[in-house]
Amino acid sequence: MRYELRLYRDDLPAQAASFRLPPGPVRALYVAGGALRVHCDALRATLGPNTALQPESTVSYSGGSLPATLLRWELVQAGAPQSLLSLEQGSSTLLLAAGMNLDPSAHWLLRCDRVDFPPGGEALTHTHRGGGIRCLLKGGIDIHTQGQQHHYAPLEPWFEAGPDPVYAAASASEDSAFARVMILPRELLGKSSISYVHPEDLAKPKSQRYQIFIDSPIDLPG
What we know:
Elements: E1 2-12, E2 19-21, E3 26-33, E4 36-40, E5 43-47, E6 51-53, E7 59-63, E8 68-77, E9 91-101, E10 108-117, E11 122-128, E12 132-138, E13 141-145, E14 148-152, E15 157-160, E16 166-170, E17 176-185, E18 194-196, E19 209-218
Antiparallel strand pairs: 1-8, 1-9, 2-7, 3-6, 3-8, 4-5, 4-7, 10-17, 10-19, 11-16, 11-18, 12-15, 12-17, 13-14, 13-16
């Protein structure tokens, strides 16, 4: 069945009024900068930079003491309306939408994590067992896949389907990092999704570091 994984960027000024997002999509929220007040389920909290949340019902959020940049991933059925915020101040933008064929009878999980590289770091040629959208947080990165190379700057997104081999080269002069959400087979709960294409790379030192925020079973929307 055809689904879409969408990434929105919401920029809220300090003390912005509360905004409500109804239930429906599978969501992950990641605060890329600033502070954000969130109310969902039984949770009332202020989220700071480099924190994430997976709301399972209606969620409302408002500006904190600092302007906030929120990255908001939503998994929806293909053709579902966009969920842009209507803001008097600030902005809400759909950065990227990527189609995904997911079997509704299979079991899935959502993983939201962050990958950091030192200057000159790299991710050796690899695949993943599921697709996902990445968004660069800082530095720079070159993604080599399917015979093409693309450079990404901070807050630029890209989609990786999973089975296509990818080589990633981070900036040579500064630290780099990206946040991502992947939709993976549920059997990978708590396990790595990466496979290295070249057997000689398995024993090589790896420069990337991972920080997992959400690793949670999901029911597909619809």
